[in-house]
Write a structure and sequence with these properties.
The protein is 25% helix and 27% strand. By secondary structure, it is α+β, with helices and mostly antiparallel strands. It is flat.
């Protein structure tokens, strides 16, 4: 990629996300990477809710990239932002939505990759004993995955006792303190979703980085600008049995952020029809 080869890419993180991002960027783009010292992303929101996020996921990722560029004087930054909650199509299933954003002041570009994955251990629970805590810990992959313990049974705002818990002794100490401070004998325990304490999330960040690289490689057919990105998505993929339009995607429109050219691509998933199981007529 001639736009990026040989340049320094600043990775806006304090939670070791460079482990998932840097090797892929360096291999694909020919950049060198740097994590700025004393860069505090917690000022832009925390998963423990003691610091609210200043905007939506994309806005926050953009603010991280801009802050890293301002701090270092570089012109190329990568920022990642994650969000956890119900899956947009399967609301009873939790998911991890990861964004990885490239901001390039030299070429006035912003390119984004994203992944929505159901591969997450995002969970929380009200507990009444140390035994409850260890049962929860075993279910989420502790100690490879860290934990957070809070004093309140409804932690809004959060009263964090400890986070980044990765040993049994630390877990027992935190839970004992939380239960002692509780007025009703309960505590709140949840997975620590920061990347350095959650290898499952780190893998999804790696997938989002790969998606970013695919987006960078997609060039405008008119001007050649990288990041020929999706700007619209149309549902209506016909049922393979009765031809009724479904909610699945029929076409995607890609647009250029430099020359504003657009191009429609039909059947982006490679299939011209939908499975009848997705049809509102065949499977009401």
């Amino acid at each position: 990629m001639q736009e990026f080869s040989g340049r320094m890419a600043v990775i806006a993180t304090m939670h070791h996300k460079e482990q998932a991002i840097a090797p892929r960027l360096e291999a694909a783009l020919g950049v060198k990477t740097l994590v700025p010292a004393d860069f505090n992303t917690d000022t832009l929101g925390t998963f423990t809710r003691d610091m609210p996020r200043p905007g939506d996921q994309i806005t926050t990722a953009r603010l991280k990239a801009e802050a890293a560029l301002d701090l270092t004087g570089a012109t190329l930054a990568i920022a990642s932002e994650g969000s956890f909650g119900p899956h947009p199509q399967i609301p009873w299933v939790p998911c991890d939505r990861e964004l990885v954003l490239l901001g390039d002041r030299q070429h006035n570009l912003e390119i984004m990759g994203q992944v929505i994955s159901t591969d997450t251990n995002y969970r929380s629970q009200i507990i009444r004993s140390i035994e409850d805590a260890f049962t929860f810990a075993q279910a989420i992959g502790f100690p490879d995955h860290g934990l957070v313990v809070m004093a309140a049974d409804n932690p809004q705002p959060a009263t964090v006792i400890a986070k980044g818990i990765v040993t049994g002794d630390a877990l027992q100490e935190a839970v004992s303190m939380a239960l002692t401070e509780s007025a009703n004998g309960t505590a709140h325990i949840e997975t620590d979703m920061r990347a350095l304490y959650n290898p499952t999330r780190m893998e999804v960040i790696a997938q989002a980085t790969e998606d970013l690289l695919k987006a960078i490689a997609r060039r405008c057919p008119d001007c050649g600008c990288p990041g020929f990105r999706e700007v619209k998505r149309y549902p209506g993929l016909p049922c393979g049995l009765c031809r009724t339009p479904t909610r699945l995607t029929l076409a995607v429109v890609y647009g250029c952020q430099r020359c504003q050219a657009e191009q429609e691509e039909r059947y982006p998933e490679g299939q011209p029809t939908a499975d009848p199981a997705q049809c509102p007529y065949c499977n009401p």
